[in-house]
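seq:
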Amino acid sequence: MKPEIKGELPGKKAKEWLSKDKKYISPSYTRVYPFVAEKGEGVWVYDVDGNRFLDFNAGVAVLSLGHSHPDVIEAINKQIKKLTHYSGTDFYYPSEIKLAEKLAEISPGAKNRKIFFSNSGAEAVEASIKLARYHTKRPYVLAFYGGFHGRTMGALSATASKTIHRKRFFTLFYGTVHSPYPYCYRCPFNLQHPECDFACIRFIEDNIFSRLVDPEEIAAFIIEPIQGEGGYIPAPQGYFKELKKLLDKYDILLIVDEVQSGMGRTGRFFAIEHYDVIPDIIAIAKGIAAGLPLGACIAKSGVMNWPPGTHASTFGGNPVSCEVALKVIENLENGLLEHVENLGNKVIKELKKWEEEFEIVGDIRGKGLMIGIEFVKDKNTKEKDKARRNKIVRKCFEKGLLILPAGENSIRVCPPLIIKEKELFVGVEILYEVIKEVSSHSLSNNP
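struct:
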């Protein structure tokens, strides 16, 4: 099966919905092309005019089991007939407790974990930051430049991805300090890994800890093991082990934001597992419930020691969402993790060839089915080519491939985890042809 586009995009029905959307929906949403979805099955999604598209973004890395997965439908139907809601922060029900037990079981390290449930990634991050400050009695939080942790005020304070996210939202969370991320393709210190000996970690101790804030006042360092919105950028091997040593030296907690990278996206339950590091707190959402709203803050039991009333969420841990999440984990345990890792290795190996073939392809990186492709005007200067990146995203849409940008000049490849090899390479072929077409044409508006 391949994408099928029947006419001009957007079609007649799509234009009608776009007109209503413009009238009633907040203009703050970031829509990069006029796709109006109606239904989906597996990795295929159809718009309101009957055009068929291949989903290479999974609703921003959410639809781990794809569209209309039978296990998801069964779990929803079964649970919704019994209990749709009863606020797990005030009462008890088995679905929430079962999922908490399972998350404790699959989390890195010992199983003595406790879980706080929320509705989204931003809420999971908010809970993580609040918990770290409460537990340590310390005010400061460290985060990375390029990191994205959400748009609520606490999460936004840790976010340093784009200025539009923060503009006019003063005053933000007090006590957040940012540090350079180990973005090896664009090292802020103009060094090469591994000869750099992690200069970016030495920078933290030699500058931030000695010039800006006493490390004994820092509650936590919140990180993404693979930066998502920042450009799908994995940290180099060994980095987080060295960072954890530094944090442990000053009893600073490590919060790992796995909202986009977690729940099998990289071929492991959590991306931090690739780095052999045990975090103190983990924030998850997106793929955990295959499209239903659910987030979670997972912490060591000794860290999650706050008393009743300290933090709560009316809708967090919804029983329907929890039952779906259990099915997601069941699928991951029954071969899906291995599928993602194997398929990811195969496609990344193929995509890496594009670095040699195309002058505009600067860097291809990733783990599993979390892959970033960065576009440049010149390989030597590495000048960012946002215009061609945008052109590629739009042309892919016109050819029936739904991809999304990441960072200033990259695209993200994050299809549903259940995608088959043949389906994946259908999308790769479309992307290849689009890059070939765009790279062969000059763009007069290329800034």
